[in-house]
Batch of 2 targets.
Target 1
Amino acid sequence: MSVNGITCCGSPSCGTTCCTSEAKAKTETKASAVTGNTNAQSGVVYEPSAANTVDSSKKTYKPNTELVNKLKADAEARTQQMRNLVEQLMRGQGKAIGTADDMWSFLRNGDFTVDAQTKAQAQADIAEDGYWGVNQTSDRIVEFAKALTGGNPDKIEEMRAAFQKGFDQATKTWGGKLPDISQKTYEATMKKFDDWAAEAQGTATIA
């Protein structure tokens, strides 16, 4: 069994770490503000400005730094867990562990075997609702973008562009087209950015 599928977007260098790091860098500069699950109760925080005493339609969007830090820490921990698993696989099959590129090459080639326990864990992680699955990964990416911007609809396209850049970087690091799960996660994430934009414009439809 190949564990290529447990990569985020599925690549651990992407999704919640690589993809969102670009978004985080951009947002922190402007607002001084990343295979665990997001917590719905720690959602977007909207903080009305003083101008709301005159015009309630005007709002100041404040980054949710608590949620940003939580998502980042969780992503880093889960990514390290996955990296440790890959390194264990490499050592077990006599493969030298050098740079990160060696690890991506090892996964990309798929020339390895895994034990039953590792296989079961990988399958659970990349399942439809697994941590590195399409649903949870795309949710985390968009939730991270909302937390960084405080839900500011004017930042949607900036966040989308940052995700696109991160995905392109992950593809380059991987050394070719990312696994199918990554492509599906990309599509799901873009759809969720579209949904966010539609909701902001008041054009969202009820399924």
Target 2
Amino acid sequence: MATLKIENLHVSIDDKEILKGINLTVNSNEIHALMGPNGNGKSTLLAAIMGHPKYNVTRGSITLDGKDVFSMSVDERSRAGLFLAMQYPQEIPGVTNSDFLRAAMNARSEKPVSLFKFIKEMEKNIADLQMKPDLAHRFLNEGFSGGEKKRNEILQMRMLKPSIAMLDEIDSGLDVDAIKVVANAIGKLQSETELGMIVVSHYERFYDSIKPTHAHVLIDGKIVLDGGYELVSKIDSEGYDWIYKQLNIDPINTDKQEKRVSISLGSCAVNRGNNNA
């Protein structure tokens, strides 16, 4: 069983503190919904876990199966079992999808993956995700629609079979039918590999399709509430105002904080208060 453990994580960008003491443990076969208003640190958390150089970790630790993640380069984190499906996948002209994926799979294997096995698996996953058959021969994300880029991220995840995956708004740009296709592909991979996941989304429709086992609300760089799927449903119906009131959070100051930071890349909930500060 894989375990990703985050303890007292503080992260800054351009000398501005974004994450202010995150504690989170994700195990195999768990789906953690990471929620919160825009600009409060969700994408920062995922990028810091994966090792984006723009984000400066000032305090805390992250371990994967007891091993120090910060001692690993980005490619080492990937080979160890971490995967990030990006909110804004980059286009890479001149590199085909098939070449990219086969190189990535070979980097994670003790011996090269046979061409026949690779083609068979890629074609199956392309069909499952209802993508265009010529995808293997197209340059990575070049000329792709937003929805195609997001499906391509899931294709990579299914081919690489990580132990812990992080999905950063993978549902944005997808229509209702595409969300169902992507959710089914995610669910199938999880059932086959006991994948653990952190999923960022603003839509209960997507969460309803993948059924998170845990839910967390991140506001102003801290996880302030924990719960189960009932927390996702309550936020979908009532927004975040009730959380501001319950925890005496000033949304005006929080909004001002968001605007200063530019980042690219009756409830069953548990009140975490300032334990993460």
